[in-house]
Amino acid sequence: MKAVISMLFAASVMVACNTQSDKQEALLKSQQKTIDSMRVAMEKQAIIDSMSALHAQREEAEKWEEIEKNEATSHTQAVANAPAQTAPAKKKWSHTAKGAVVGAGTGAITGAIINKKRGEGALIGSLIGAGVGAGTGAIVDHSVKKRKQQ
User: Fold this and answer.
1) Could you identify which of 23, 55, 106, 140 might form a hypothetical disulfide with 95, taking C-beta atoms 3.0 to 4.6 angstroms apart as the criterion?
2) How far apart are the C-alpha atoms of 97 and 137, rounded to whole Å?
3) How far, CA to CA in Å, does 86 sit from each of 75, 80, 89, 92?
4) Is 122 exposed, middle or buried (CB count within 10 Å of its CB: 0-12, 13-18, 19+)?
């Protein structure tokens, strides 16, 4: 009798465990179906987004082409109606300005090399160099002015 009860108990436990695993398997399958359907929906949305972006790019390109076309037309009309103008000549640097810039750069490099405090040496050197360069440039400007007068 004990053996029969033990067998029935073992069989009921096995059936209960087997039912539990079937339920878990069914639950996993339903979860996997849900995940798969979500992936499909995400892929569809990605395709829709890329198509929307492409459409927006095309509209933007068409807009710019239209703007460029209008500008080209208006520019052509403006050029045809406007009198010919020459571009103003660039004003050249004076020898004084050139000398000051070159002197400042050279003085800064020399001052930074000579002085142990690099920043202070560069500052002092640039000031002295700018002064010497401006003076030399002023002398050259004065001599050029004399030559033009003769």
Assistant:
1) 140
2) 7
3) 17, 15, 9, 18
4) buried
Phi, psi of 21 (to 5 degrees): -70, -35
Give yes or no for a contact between 108 and 129, defined as CB atoms under 8 angstroms apart.
Answer: yes
pTM assigned to the model: 0.41
State how far Cα 117 lies from the chain centre. 38
Q: Give the tokens for residue 37.
A: 């359907």
Q: For residue 82, how many C-alpha atoms fall within 13 Å in the half-sphere facing its CB?
A: 9
Cα first-last separation, the chain: 143
User: What does the alpha-carbon distance between residue 24 and residue 19 come to, in Å, rounded to a whole number?
Assistant: 9
Q: What is the pLDDT of residue 133?
A: 93
CA atoms of 44 and 72, how far apart (whole Å): 42
CA gap 122, 109 in Å, rounded: 6
Average pLDDT per consecutive 10 residues, the chain (150 residues; last block may be shorter): 78 68 81 88 88 89 85 62 65 90 93 91 93 94 90
